[in-house]
Amino acid sequence: MTRIKVAVAGASGRMGREVVKMVLGDPELELVAAVARSTTNMDAGRLVGLEPCGVQVTNDLELALVESKPDVLVDFTTPQSAVVNTRLAIKHKVRPVMGTTGFTPEDIEELDKQCKAEGIGGLIAPNFSIGAILMMKFAAQAAKYMPHVEIIEYHGDQKLDAPSGTSVKTAELISEVREELRQGNPKEEETIEGARGGYYQGFRIHSVRLPGIFAQQEVIFGAFGQTLKIRHDSYDRAGYMPGVNVAVKKVMEYAGMVYGFEHFID
């Protein structure tokens, strides 16, 4: 059996460590590189509390890609690094699986062209949780019948971006089936700036940032005499790993950049 060779960028981060564990625990995958800015010259197995695996953590992504020749790069770094890292991967014909947010529609279009030119697949996924993907799909279905909607997303106070990539992706899926509709009283006035949240296609996205919260999202629909709430809660980063595992394997079958993990599940 030919194993899929995987490099992990952001290996010392909380999500990156889970990815390293997942790869080391799957006989169909082979960890060939682990990249981190803050931790180097350490065995990647030791980094995640396992037995040594023979892969040393490095801080040079391009050198790691050249020397280890992975099939797939899994990236959980920062929004500032995401686009650069994706371009590097494509340049070396490595399939990027990006769990990092920060991509604009223009970035995605450009990266799609680059992937197709190299004949490889790639994935940009705001969320790898299968439960979160179902939440987004259910929300899009509900929006066909209940177009008055608001999104509230909750994350820890150290999250860098707001709104979250998951809430933006949810809003995009809703907007595909719902015509733009400006909600609320037309004479509505904010007495405190931002009180009504971020504006998207006529509805609002609210971002809560507090210590003690991991990741939650609620999509609330309102109609005469009723409301519908669709909510997903994540409690542990390990819950994302089955989705990352599927992505690493499925991306080998695609050409072009795919935006959204929902395209990888039936």
TrEMBL record:
<dbReference type="GO" id="GO:0016726">
    <property type="term" value="F:oxidoreductase activity, acting on CH or CH2 groups, NAD or NADP as acceptor"/>
</dbReference>
<keyword id="KW-0963">Cytoplasm</keyword>
<dbReference type="InterPro" id="IPR022664">
    <property type="entry name" value="DapB_N_CS"/>
</dbReference>
<comment type="pathway">
    <text>Amino-acid biosynthesis; L-lysine biosynthesis via DAP pathway; (S)-tetrahydrodipicolinate from L-aspartate: step 4/4.</text>
</comment>
<comment type="function">
    <text>Catalyzes the conversion of 4-hydroxy-tetrahydrodipicolinate (HTPA) to tetrahydrodipicolinate.</text>
</comment>
<keyword id="KW-0457">Lysine biosynthesis</keyword>
<keyword id="KW-0521">NADP</keyword>
<dbReference type="Pfam" id="PF05173">
    <property type="entry name" value="DapB_C"/>
</dbReference>
<dbReference type="InterPro" id="IPR000846">
    <property type="entry name" value="DapB_N"/>
</dbReference>
<dbReference type="InterPro" id="IPR022663">
    <property type="entry name" value="DapB_C"/>
</dbReference>
<dbReference type="InterPro" id="IPR036291">
    <property type="entry name" value="NAD(P)-bd_dom_sf"/>
</dbReference>
<keyword id="KW-0560">Oxidoreductase</keyword>
<feature type="binding site">
    <location>
        <begin position="165"/>
        <end position="166"/>
    </location>
    <ligand>
        <name>(S)-2,3,4,5-tetrahydrodipicolinate</name>
    </ligand>
</feature>
<comment type="similarity">
    <text>Belongs to the DapB family.</text>
</comment>
<feature type="active site" description="Proton donor/acceptor">
    <location>
        <position position="155"/>
    </location>
</feature>
<feature type="binding site">
    <location>
        <position position="37"/>
    </location>
    <ligand>
        <name>NADP(+)</name>
    </ligand>
</feature>
<dbReference type="GO" id="GO:0005829">
    <property type="term" value="C:cytosol"/>
</dbReference>
<dbReference type="GO" id="GO:0008839">
    <property type="term" value="F:4-hydroxy-tetrahydrodipicolinate reductase"/>
</dbReference>
<keyword id="KW-0520">NAD</keyword>
<feature type="binding site">
    <location>
        <begin position="125"/>
        <end position="128"/>
    </location>
    <ligand>
        <name>NAD(+)</name>
    </ligand>
</feature>
<comment type="subunit">
    <text>Homotetramer.</text>
</comment>
<dbReference type="GO" id="GO:0051287">
    <property type="term" value="F:NAD binding"/>
</dbReference>
<protein>
    <recommendedName>
        <fullName>4-hydroxy-tetrahydrodipicolinate reductase</fullName>
        <ecNumber>1.17.1.8</ecNumber>
    </recommendedName>
</protein>
<feature type="binding site">
    <location>
        <begin position="10"/>
        <end position="15"/>
    </location>
    <ligand>
        <name>NAD(+)</name>
    </ligand>
</feature>
<feature type="active site" description="Proton donor">
    <location>
        <position position="159"/>
    </location>
</feature>
<dbReference type="GO" id="GO:0050661">
    <property type="term" value="F:NADP binding"/>
</dbReference>
<dbReference type="GO" id="GO:0009089">
    <property type="term" value="P:lysine biosynthetic process via diaminopimelate"/>
</dbReference>
<dbReference type="InterPro" id="IPR023940">
    <property type="entry name" value="DHDPR_bac"/>
</dbReference>
<dbReference type="GO" id="GO:0019877">
    <property type="term" value="P:diaminopimelate biosynthetic process"/>
</dbReference>
<keyword id="KW-0220">Diaminopimelate biosynthesis</keyword>
<keyword id="KW-0028">Amino-acid biosynthesis</keyword>
<feature type="binding site">
    <location>
        <begin position="99"/>
        <end position="101"/>
    </location>
    <ligand>
        <name>NAD(+)</name>
    </ligand>
</feature>
<dbReference type="Pfam" id="PF01113">
    <property type="entry name" value="DapB_N"/>
</dbReference>
